[in-house]
């Protein structure tokens, strides 16, 4: 006999746990099925983001930044140290403690909202039945009026670079026992840049091989140029247009065979190799025969604009569907679907989802780039302002980067905001908010910003759209 629920969520990551909690808030009887275990072997909710992605990587980024600043920034403030040292084991333990705190926090939220958690592998059967192979060896059968698939994503493993002791994915890069002398990275995307930065700051020689000819092709070209310049100053060796063809683990390290941008054969020898070429939807084994749910050629669950699948009463959200694989995108989809199930007008505006790379300097953007506007033939005006002219940034000894605002040339509606610099992961939300309310560059320019603050760069960039910035020559 099946246990009956109003909503069953498969996956306890960002999209899944938001969907479960919101549905419960709206009075639904909810179950959430999740298979993940923590390092201690106990159930750990939160998905890749919380356990081995967003949160732990930011913990290491912050720890490594403190260490880097001791040797590269603090002297400007008159602060000196003798022989700075890093205790990698203690740094990793701090990261693990943060992860455990937050996975436990989600479990507490489930309990408070009366969400029933099942720990094991869930599979959707026809008729909105979910079978759960629990970690204790038993199998339970659940039935629901609505099922939300939130299976998340997995690291892509290359056929010639299988994961092991020396060739690792992001999970392995978060738990290295010591700083490798030489770290190779395949892929100059978010994961490659962030984790490459962590170990570079701690003393590793880091070489990043990127297959594309352009650096950060998805970002604004000016932003990418400034970011690349700053990363080069830090000692990150980023090689573009490199096609990796083979790897081999030998006594002296991992030998990486690739062709460079000129087509010449090259070999890179490293102690550890991080493969960060992207992620794929974790849909293998998720669907039994006859569910009516369809998958794309990339293994993603096919959904409509409101996250409905082809099967009645079955929805899908987060990394396992189309769109950017971002935790906050999953948050919003999970909440929207829960509200749609409850008869409310759930909605996600995919045009205002911010993108952030938490390097130093940070890179962030929302909306369209100049290159996209040009290719689409959209008339626009641009205003930018450098952090080097912002008193707070200079006082912090972090003057690198700028803010750019793009607005429609006729309506003045903000179409995009692009930033590179200190703490721009926070500043980008001024652009998100302005765009969400269909605001104009003039609206943003007329809002009073505190002085001194980094946000003044946003203010002056908005003013520069109409060539009236006070602190730069227009």
Automatic annotation (TrEMBL):
<feature type="domain" description="Pyridine nucleotide-disulphide oxidoreductase dimerisation">
    <location>
        <begin position="353"/>
        <end position="461"/>
    </location>
</feature>
<dbReference type="InterPro" id="IPR050151">
    <property type="entry name" value="Class-I_Pyr_Nuc-Dis_Oxidored"/>
</dbReference>
<dbReference type="InterPro" id="IPR006258">
    <property type="entry name" value="Lipoamide_DH"/>
</dbReference>
<keyword id="KW-1015">Disulfide bond</keyword>
<dbReference type="Pfam" id="PF07992">
    <property type="entry name" value="Pyr_redox_2"/>
</dbReference>
<dbReference type="GO" id="GO:0004148">
    <property type="term" value="F:dihydrolipoyl dehydrogenase (NADH) activity"/>
</dbReference>
<feature type="active site" description="Proton acceptor">
    <location>
        <position position="451"/>
    </location>
</feature>
<keyword id="KW-0274">FAD</keyword>
<dbReference type="Pfam" id="PF02852">
    <property type="entry name" value="Pyr_redox_dim"/>
</dbReference>
<keyword id="KW-0560">Oxidoreductase</keyword>
<dbReference type="GO" id="GO:0050660">
    <property type="term" value="F:flavin adenine dinucleotide binding"/>
</dbReference>
<feature type="binding site">
    <location>
        <position position="58"/>
    </location>
    <ligand>
        <name>FAD</name>
    </ligand>
</feature>
<dbReference type="GO" id="GO:0005737">
    <property type="term" value="C:cytoplasm"/>
</dbReference>
<dbReference type="InterPro" id="IPR023753">
    <property type="entry name" value="FAD/NAD-binding_dom"/>
</dbReference>
<protein>
    <recommendedName>
        <fullName>Dihydrolipoyl dehydrogenase</fullName>
        <ecNumber>1.8.1.4</ecNumber>
    </recommendedName>
</protein>
<feature type="binding site">
    <location>
        <position position="122"/>
    </location>
    <ligand>
        <name>FAD</name>
    </ligand>
</feature>
<keyword id="KW-0547">Nucleotide-binding</keyword>
<dbReference type="InterPro" id="IPR012999">
    <property type="entry name" value="Pyr_OxRdtase_I_AS"/>
</dbReference>
<keyword id="KW-0676">Redox-active center</keyword>
<keyword id="KW-0285">Flavoprotein</keyword>
<feature type="binding site">
    <location>
        <begin position="187"/>
        <end position="194"/>
    </location>
    <ligand>
        <name>NAD(+)</name>
    </ligand>
</feature>
<dbReference type="InterPro" id="IPR001100">
    <property type="entry name" value="Pyr_nuc-diS_OxRdtase"/>
</dbReference>
<keyword id="KW-0963">Cytoplasm</keyword>
<feature type="binding site">
    <location>
        <position position="319"/>
    </location>
    <ligand>
        <name>FAD</name>
    </ligand>
</feature>
<comment type="similarity">
    <text>Belongs to the class-I pyridine nucleotide-disulfide oxidoreductase family.</text>
</comment>
<feature type="binding site">
    <location>
        <position position="210"/>
    </location>
    <ligand>
        <name>NAD(+)</name>
    </ligand>
</feature>
<feature type="domain" description="FAD/NAD(P)-binding">
    <location>
        <begin position="5"/>
        <end position="334"/>
    </location>
</feature>
<dbReference type="GO" id="GO:0006103">
    <property type="term" value="P:2-oxoglutarate metabolic process"/>
</dbReference>
<dbReference type="InterPro" id="IPR016156">
    <property type="entry name" value="FAD/NAD-linked_Rdtase_dimer_sf"/>
</dbReference>
<dbReference type="InterPro" id="IPR004099">
    <property type="entry name" value="Pyr_nucl-diS_OxRdtase_dimer"/>
</dbReference>
<feature type="binding site">
    <location>
        <position position="278"/>
    </location>
    <ligand>
        <name>NAD(+)</name>
    </ligand>
</feature>
<keyword id="KW-0520">NAD</keyword>
<dbReference type="InterPro" id="IPR036188">
    <property type="entry name" value="FAD/NAD-bd_sf"/>
</dbReference>
<feature type="binding site">
    <location>
        <begin position="325"/>
        <end position="328"/>
    </location>
    <ligand>
        <name>FAD</name>
    </ligand>
</feature>
<feature type="disulfide bond" description="Redox-active">
    <location>
        <begin position="49"/>
        <end position="54"/>
    </location>
</feature>
